[in-house]
Amino acid sequence: MAEFKNLILDVEDEIAVLQIARPKALNALNSETLDELMVALTEIEARDDVKVLILTGGAIYNKKIEADDPFRSFVAGADISEMHGFTAAEARAFGIRASKPFFKLQNMRQVTIAAVNGFALGGGCEIAMACDIRIASENATFGQPEVGLGIIPGFGGTQRLARLVGMGRAKELIFTCDVIKAEEAYRIGLVNHVVAKEELMPTAKEMAKKIISKGSYAVSVAKAAINEGFDMDIQNAVELEANLFGVVNSTHDKTEGMGAFLEKREAKLTDF
């Protein structure tokens, strides 16, 4: 396993917890952190003993990090101190650099859950949106403040936000730079659940365990069907689903799952 300067990775009971750990910078994403994320996510995706990945900010789960307020920041954004002197070409390259781990989160076979504590602004909101599911602590805040700095979201924010909350709400949030609280993020569909701070990681891990109890291969195929079909027209998307439905019907888990249902017993699902 690779060693990281800005991340902490723990794996237990088929759940990987990946923490972004730059507390002095409020976990802001710089080039080094983005590169480490790509390495870590590639390693996690290759592991058959990991079924769900929980991504969170540093210090709320592992006491290896010290911070005045461990719930203060998930990811406060991209690192402005690095970006300040960018040329147009360098800024474009920075956006593409971020897109690689973000697409890995979106498309890797494992389910990805963002456990969002504190600030999820700019790149923090964008990396949360790249995950399959978002759970927010009650003190979490979300926003895309980039136009107030004379730029635009560059890590997928103009695209993923509109897909999650609709074009009108996405435009309002991006154009006004408004920062919204967790309950409002839940109301508009940006997050799946809002919980008390102390319940954030237990809730994320309980959801992870529930997902793991299902057919891991079927979950990964369902994820691919949703992702790949989302931008297709409905006819081609349903055909994609039918094709993948055929694939999963050839697995051990299908035989075991349906057999257990008919025999009124608990299924023992193993495929990934």
List the helices and strands and how they pair.
Elements: E1 7-12, E2 15-20, H1 31-45, E3 52-57, E4 73-75, H2 80-83, H3 88-107, E5 111-116, E6 119-121, H4 123-129, E7 133-137, E8 141-143, H5 157-165, H6 167-176, E9 179-181, H7 182-187, E10 193-195, H8 200-212, H9 216-229, H10 234-248, H11 252-263
Helix pairs in contact: 1-3, 4-5, 5-6, 9-10
Supply database-style keywords.
single chain; 4-stranded mixed sheet; 272 residues; alpha/beta
Provide the helix percentage.
40-55%
**Share in β-strands:** 15-25%
The main sheet comes to:
6 strands, mixed
Gyration radius, to the nearest Å?
19 Å
- H-E string: EEHEEHHEEHEEHHEHEHHHH
Task: Give the rounded overall mean pLDDT.
Answer: 93
How many individual helices?
A: 11
- Total number of strands: 10
What is the approximate shape?
globular
The assigned structural class equals: alpha/beta
Distance between the termini: 21 Å
| Assembly form of the protein | single chain
Strand order of the largest sheet: 1-2-3-5-7-10
Low-pLDDT ranges: 63-67
Describe the 3D structure.
By secondary structure, the protein is an alpha/beta fold. It has eleven helices and ten strands. Helix 1 (31-45) links the parallel strand 2 and strand 3. The model is unreliable at 63-67 (pLDDT under 50).
Entry summary:
By secondary structure, the protein is of the alpha/beta class.
